[in-house]
């Protein structure tokens, strides 16, 4: 469809760093402050090397966080003629631009077309790179070297607790990128159902879960129910599995960290005959954690398989991006009173951040 003739890397330069942030989020347990000081995000040279590595692996999804619009009526008419069938060449230029925008939209998943702007098409850097790879692998890899020419810093536009607006385009139907931290995987399972948006989430395949913890729902936090005579059994099982983990053929530093974490848990529950629902949730989470440790360090099971034991309530981090049209759609649906508390809270914060930038709902 000739995307490489319509767009250039220059069109995406302001949002290229967002792709690196999305990628590092997948492979790091660090918070936003940590990530915004990571050379693979803030150094144009290191960022280009890192993104080139991802390009070599064909890890295209992170490049969807970089987006650009183009009014095709501004292209030279001879270029429009090259990109359309001969039977359309006698049409007025405006009509050619409209048809080409529709064609690009129809053949590129998650591109964006709105009849309100008939000659305008929006695509992500992912679309552009996939097209380059199709036509010339050499040009595709050279493009990553060119990314080092752009030294555009990430300057977040606002923060509401655990939700940060990383960047935004306001032209046409816009585009926004959010960094969301300390939410549960239960919530992100709901979030990713909004398939018009793009996501880069902390990976349980590549990121250690050793220091992660559970998100406790408010209803569990405030519950007054208690249960007796289970604490001792939990602690015995956890302690027994801990001893197995400490016998693993792995670094002593890792075993010391596991021992310290688990001993702290055992001490905090050792004298409790009855425990609250919140404490029961915590015990169950830590039981799953020590089983995970046992699988990884004693059983030499890959993290990607050991993670099956971990609760969906574990904390995670995710980068979310999309056109304002589809982000507004998400916010409208998830600020509804019937939405579950965690995703509703996230949507409310996203809405407030956009309103602070003058976006009207």
UniProtKB/TrEMBL annotation:
Superkingdom field: Bacteria
PROSITE patterns: THYX
UniProt GO MF annotations: flavin adenine dinucleotide binding; NADPH binding; thymidylate synthase (FAD) activity; thymidylate synthase activity
InterPro entries, alphabetized: Thymidylate_synthase_ThyX, Thymidylate_synthase_ThyX_sf
Keyword list, A-Z: Methyltransferase, Transferase
Documented EC number(s): 2.1.1.148
Coiled-coil regions listed: none
The name this protein goes by in its record: Thymidylate synthase ThyX (TS) (TSase)
SUPFAM superfamilies in the record: Thymidylate synthase-complementing protein Thy1
GO BP annotations, alphabetical order: dTMP biosynthetic process; methylation
């Amino acid at each position: 469809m000739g995307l490489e003739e319509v767009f250039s890397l220059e069109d995406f330069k302001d949002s290229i760093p967002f792709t690196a942030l999305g990628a590092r989020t997948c492979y790091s347990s660090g918070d936003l402050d940590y990530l915004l000081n990571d050379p693979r995000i803030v150094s144009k040279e290191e960022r280009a090397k890192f993104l080139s590595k991802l390009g070599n692996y064909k890890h295209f999804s992170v490049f969807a966080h970089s987006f650009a619009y183009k009014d095709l009526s501004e292209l030279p008419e001879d270029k429009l003629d090259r990109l359309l069938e001969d039977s359309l060449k006698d049409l007025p230029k405006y009509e050619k631009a409209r048809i080409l925008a529709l064609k690009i939209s129809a053949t590129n998943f998650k591109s964006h077309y709105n009849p309100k702007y008939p000659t305008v098409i929006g695509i992500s850097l992912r679309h552009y790179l996939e097209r380059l790879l199709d036509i010339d692998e050499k040009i595709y890899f050279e493009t990553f070297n060119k990314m080092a020419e752009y030294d555009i810093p990430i300057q977040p536009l606002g923060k509401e607790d655990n939700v940060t607006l990383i960047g935004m385009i306001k032209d046409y139907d816009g585009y926004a990128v959010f960094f969301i931290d300390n939410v549960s995987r239960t919530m992100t399972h709901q979030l990713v159902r909004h398939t018009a948006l793009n996501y880069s989430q902390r990976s349980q395949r590549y990121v250690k879960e050793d220091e992660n913890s559970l998100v406790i729902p408010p209803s569990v936090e405030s519950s007054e129910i208690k249960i007796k005579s289970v604490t001792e059994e939990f602690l015995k099982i956890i302690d027994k599995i801990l001893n197995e983990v400490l016998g693993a053929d792995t670094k002593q530093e890792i075993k010391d960290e596991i021992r310290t974490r688990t001993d702290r848990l055992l001490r905090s529950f050792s004298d409790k005959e009855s425990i609250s629902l919140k404490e029961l949730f915590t015990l169950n989470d830590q039981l799953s954690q020590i089983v995970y440790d046992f699988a990884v360090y004693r059983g030499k099971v890959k993290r990607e398989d050991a993670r099956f034991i971990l609760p969906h309530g574990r904390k995670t981090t995710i980068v979310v991006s999309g056109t304002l049209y589809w982000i507004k759609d998400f916010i409208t649906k998830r600020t509804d009173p019937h939405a579950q508390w965690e995703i509703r809270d996230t949507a409310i914060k996203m809405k407030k951040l956009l309103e602070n930038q003058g976006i009207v709902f």
